[in-house]
Each structure stands twice: as structure tokens, then as C-alpha cells.
Amino acid sequence: MEPAVHLCSLSKRFRGGPPVLDGFDLKVGHGEVFGLIGRNGSGKTTALRILMGLLRADHGVGKSQVVRALAEGLGLPLI
Fold first, then answer.
1. Would you give the end-to-end CA distance of the chain in angstroms?
2. Cα gap 60→58, rounded to integer Å
3. Are strands 59-64 and 19-28 parallel, antiparallel or unpaired?
4. Sheet of 19-28, strand order
5. What is the pLDDT of residues 29-72, one digit of tens each?
6. What is the reported pTM?
7. What is the largest CA-CA distance in the chain?
């Protein structure tokens, strides 16, 4: 079964600065509970924005069955 959330090799950099995400991987299965913790500026919000389709990754893939289902139900495009 495909994971509920799957982030694979995400990389993101803003305005030529240092990488915010550099090869970030995460898999969360159906029914699992997880916490995403880290220091300020470590890329937590950036990873979630990519997962929700609010931001494009420079490299890698972010997939969520929940976000996909919500977007399709509301008729919203996914990036």
C-alpha cells in the first residue's frame, strides 16, 4: 500500500541562499502518528508547504493521498 505521506529527496533553496531542504525524505503510513520537530529555519514549514502544493520543490517529490483527495474534492489544481 502506498504511504499516506511520502516526501522523496526534497530540495529547496530560496533566492540563491543555502539549502533549506537538501535530500529530505519522509514516509508516513496510514494510521501512523508522527511529529516533525527541529530548530527554527530547519525546513519544517517548507516541507509541509511543498507537501500541500503551496510551494514547488527545486528537486524531489512530495505526495499526500489526503491533500490529493481534498484538492480533487474542491476542484483545486495541484502543482
1. 24
2. 7
3. unpaired
4. 19-28, 5-13, 59-64
5. 888 998 999 999 899 999 988 888 888 899 998 877 767 766 77
6. 0.77
7. 38
